[in-house]
């Protein structure tokens, strides 16, 4: 653990008032574990009643890249792991194409419980659940966030604008991390013509993580 990390404020509601990420103090993996235990007791919205498993998040607590999706689907609900169904396989492929593995990144969703029949998240569910995502981001402190689809992008940007206007830009966020917005992999599966654009977004993600300037002529 590196010394001198900044304070990470976590809400009292989560039972973690303040943690200092410094040597000898709670580290990212420990803080995530405490938060996971909190999520596994959550009854803040109706979705805990219909879910099979809470889907907290998975990956490297020290990741530079953090992906944020919408909500668990059927396979994720069954396994308790984010992005393990068809959309997840496409996410893994896009990631591997830019030279990263799933073990190097962290993956989470705005909602930790599956909405019945994979319906869209409701505003009250997002309001109840998103403080968990907020804390995950504050603990991990990724260099770059990547929003997969509109729900994640709207939450991370804090404004409602069409996905088309959010893509192909490097956004600043309240977390200090940069943000890249791309299509939800499920949307790419439904419309394979989006694959080239998704590849372009992932190339941009790689360039931002690796600290290169964005030269659009080098994007595929
Ligand atoms: N879609 C999401 O948004 N998240 C998952 O974990 C799986 C599918």
Radius of gyration equals 17 Å
CATH architecture: 3-Layer(aba) Sandwich
Question: How much is the average pLDDT?
Answer: 90
Fourth-tier CATH superfamily name: Uracil-DNA glycosylase-like domain
The profile of the biggest β sheet is: 6 strands, mixed
Question: pLDDT below 50 for ≥5 consecutive residues: which ranges?
Answer: 1-9
Strand share of the residues?
Answer: 5-15%
Along the chain, the helix and strand elements come as: EEHHEEHHEHEHHEEHH
Give the distinct bound molecules. uracil
Distance between the termini: 37 Å
Number of strands: 8
Q: Tell me the count of domains.
A: 1
Task: Tell the overall outline.
Answer: globular
Strand order of the largest sheet: 3-5-4-6-8-7
Helical/strand content category = alpha/beta
CATH topology: Uracil-DNA Glycosylase, subunit E
Helix content: 25-40%
Number of distinct helices: 9
Highest-level CATH class: Alpha Beta
Task: Write a brief structural summary.
This protein has 220 residues and is α/β, with parallel strands linked by helices.
How would you describe this structure to a colleague?
Helix content is 39%, strand content 13%. It has one domain (7-211): Uracil-DNA glycosylase-like domain (Uracil-DNA Glycosylase, subunit E), CATH 3.40.470.10. A six-stranded mixed beta sheet has the order 3-5-4-6-8-7, sandwiched between helices. A two-stranded antiparallel ribbon has the order 1-2. The radius of gyration is 17 Å and the shape is globular. By secondary structure, it is α/β, with parallel strands linked by helices. Uracil (URA) binds next to helix 4.
């Amino acid at each position: 653990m590196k010394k001198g990390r900044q304070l990470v404020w976590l809400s009292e509601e989560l039972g973690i008032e303040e943690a200092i990420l410094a040597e000898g103090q709670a580290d990212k993996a420990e803080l995530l574990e405490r938060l996971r235990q909190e999520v596994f007791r959550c009854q803040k919205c109706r979705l805990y009643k219909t879910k099979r498993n809470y889907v907290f998040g998975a990956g490297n607590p020290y990741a530079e890249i953090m992906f944020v999706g919408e909500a668990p689907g059927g396979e994720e609900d069954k396994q308790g792991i984010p992005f393990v169904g068809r959309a997840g396989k496409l996410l893994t492929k896009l990631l591997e194409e830019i030279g990263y593995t799933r073990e190097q990144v962290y993956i989470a969703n705005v909602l930790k419980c599956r909405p019945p029949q994979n319906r869209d998240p409701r505003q009250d569910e997002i309001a109840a659940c998103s403080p968990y995502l907020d804390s995950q981001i504050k603990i991990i402190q990724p260099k770059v966030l990547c929003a997969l689809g509109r729900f994640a992008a709207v939450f991370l940007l804090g404004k409602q604008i069409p996905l088309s206007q959010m893509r192909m830009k490097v956004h600043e966020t309240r977390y200090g991390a940069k943000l890249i917005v791309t299509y939800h992999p499920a949307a790419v599966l439904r419309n394979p013509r989006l694959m080239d654009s998704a590849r372009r977004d992932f190339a941009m993600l790689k360039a931002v993580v690796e600290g290169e300037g964005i030269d659009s002529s080098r994007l595929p």
